[in-house]
């Protein structure tokens, strides 16, 4: 029988409540042991509600006094580095919510110290754990749409939706704490998803991250983002995000030489009648069609349509994948599985740090008005961000 892992959560705010505590509860291998939040009332309430034995207001005290196997860091972006480093030094495995950190130096510090102390590090890019994105990845790897040469991911969502109704603090509005908004908040998902689905690192970046919609009395963070990314394999990716559209919209588009895949995770709209659609130009028969597609391909005329010709008629296949287990539950279970199997997590620390490099490159590109090569050769500090010095 597989063992149970003692977990703590640092930052008992909105994402911990909505996603992490319920996912821990649904993961048989995980046991919530401690809750930590600088707001004592919130730490204690979370411990009581979700059944943790202990609660803390200081992560250092928690790592000194509480026996833990793993921690989920869901605190504001500016403290991710120090908290992840403290966890690694205490020999505790770490999931850090996205963005892994704010600057490229902070991000690579986390990766380095986790490697030095031989603890596993995963970044909370939950979109990779939706079934439709996992199926898209599998179909790309099986060559169903040929070589992916262009990819696009978007996430448009007004500040007010999350900030006014869900968030527990205003850290997202504070550029000195969050480091930015559309780029490190929504953009972090889009950049990670595209890089993973295309399956090739980003070598250079050009883009903009600007505040066009919101007044500076509300926030100094960016609310409008475009990023163009060149991948190592020659493909190009494009990310667009904003924090001003009242309608939430999200799309991921993969354009290959032999087909196209669309997925939607955060929201669908009338153009997206299903969360996933695939078109392949390949000559498949019912027998050779990949199982994912076979399960969702229905004849449009009547049942013999698919048997009239040697190969299947070519058309879009709409797919509605199962919603359960959901993305976060899949992610928590996956991490527990990595601890048991001593395996590398799907979203590695290096993946998280490279995504931060892309974000930092966009801020640099804004200054130089040019493409920026990766990896970066110096620390890039986003405008208005105040880095928290390393704890030790
Ligand atoms: N994967 C996703 O889709 C997703 C969604 C939401 C948030 N997040 C990430 O999760 C993190 C938290 O976001 P949120 O929306 O839950 O914020 P929130 O404002 O709702 O909650 C933040 C919590 O952290 C606590 N906190 C502040 N400083 C702390 C510290 N030094 N140590 C411990 N606790 C501290 C606050 O008291 C609060 O309870 C951010 O990094 C954010 O980007 C990810």
Number of helices: 12
The CATH homologous superfamily of the largest domain is called Dihydrodipicolinate Reductase, domain 2
Radius of gyration: 22 Å
- Largest sheet: spatial strand order: 14-13-12-11-7-10-9-8-15
Determine the structural class based on helices, strands and strand pairing.
Answer: alpha/beta
Per the principal axes of the C-alpha atoms, what is the gross shape? globular
Strand content range: 15-25%
Q: Ranges with pLDDT <50 over ≥5 residues?
A: none
Rounded mean pLDDT is 96
Task: Give a quick account of the main beta sheet: strands, pairing sense, barrel closure.
Answer: 9 strands, mixed
3D structure, described in words:
By secondary structure, the chain is of the alpha/beta class. It has two domains: 5-126 and 328-348, 3-Layer(aba) Sandwich (Rossmann fold); 128-323, 2-Layer Sandwich (Dihydrodipicolinate Reductase, domain 2). The protein is built from twelve helices and 15 strands. The protein has helices at residues 14-25, 40-50, 59-65, 80-89, 104-116, 131-141, 159-165, 175-178, 182-198, 291-296, 327-341, 349-368, and strands at 5-10, 30-36, 54-56, 70-73, 93-97, 121-124, 148-156, 202-210, 224-231, 236-242, 249-256, 259-263, 276-280, 317-319, 372-373. Strands 14-13-12-11-7-10-9-8-15 form a nine-stranded mixed sheet. It has a six-stranded parallel sheet with strand order 3-2-1-4-5-6, sandwiched between helices. Helix 4 (80-89) runs parallel beside helix 5 (104-116). The chain is globular. The two termini are 39 Å apart. The model has no long low-confidence stretch (mean pLDDT 96). Residues 10-16, 36-39, 42, 59, 74-77, 79, 97-98, 124, 126, 167-169, 171, 185 line the site of nicotinamide-adenine-dinucleotide (NAD).
């Amino acid at each position: 029988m597989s063992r149970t892992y003692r977990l703590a959560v640092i930052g008992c705010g909105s994402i911990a409540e909505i996603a992490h505590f319920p996912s821990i509860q649904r993961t048989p291998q995980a046991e919530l042991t401690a809750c930590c939040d600088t707001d004592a009332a919130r730490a204690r309430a979370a411990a009581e509600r979700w059944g943790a034995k202990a609660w803390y207001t200081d992560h250092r005290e928690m790592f000194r006094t509480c026996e833990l196997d793993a921690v989920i860091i869901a605190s504001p972006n500016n403290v991710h580095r120090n908290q992840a480093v403290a966890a690694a030094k205490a020999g505790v495995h770490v999931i850090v919510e996205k963005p892994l950190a704010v600057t490229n130096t902070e991000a690579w510090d986390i990766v380095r110290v986790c490697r030095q102390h031989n603890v596993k590090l995963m970044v909370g890019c939950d979109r990779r754990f939706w079934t439709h994105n996992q199926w898209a990845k599998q179909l790309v790897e099986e060559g169903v749409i040929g070589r992916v040469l262009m990819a696009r991911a978007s996430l448009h969502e007004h500040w007010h939706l999350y900030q006014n109704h869900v968030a527990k603090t205003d850290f997202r509005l504070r550029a000195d704490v969050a480091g930015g908004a559309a780029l490190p908040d929504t953009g972090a998902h889009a950049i990670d998803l595209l890089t993973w689905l295309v399956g090739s690192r980003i070598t250079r970046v050009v883009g903009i991250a600007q505040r066009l919609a919101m007044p500076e009395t509300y926030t100094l963070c960016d609310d409008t983002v475009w990023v163009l990314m060149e991948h190592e394999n020659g493909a190009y990716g494009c990310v667009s995000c904003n924090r001003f559209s009242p309608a939430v919209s999200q799309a991921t588009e993969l354009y290959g030489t032999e087909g196209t895949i669309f997925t939607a995770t955060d929201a669908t709209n009338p153009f997206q009648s299903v969360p996933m659609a695939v078109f392949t130009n390949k000559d498949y028969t019912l027998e050779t069609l990949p199982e994912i597609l076979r399960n969702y391909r229905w004849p449009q005329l009547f049942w013999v349509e698919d048997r009239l010709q040697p190969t299947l008629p070519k058309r879009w296949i709409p797919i509605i994948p199962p919603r359960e287990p959901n993305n976060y539950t899949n992610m928590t279970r996956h991490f527990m599985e990595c601890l048991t199997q001593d395996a590398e997590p799907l979203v590695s620390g290096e993946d998280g740090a490279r995504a931060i490099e892309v974000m930092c490159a966009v801020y640099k590109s804004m200054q130089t008005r040019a493409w920026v090569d990766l990896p970066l050769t110096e620390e890039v500090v986003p405008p208005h961000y105040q880095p928290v010095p390393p704890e030790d």
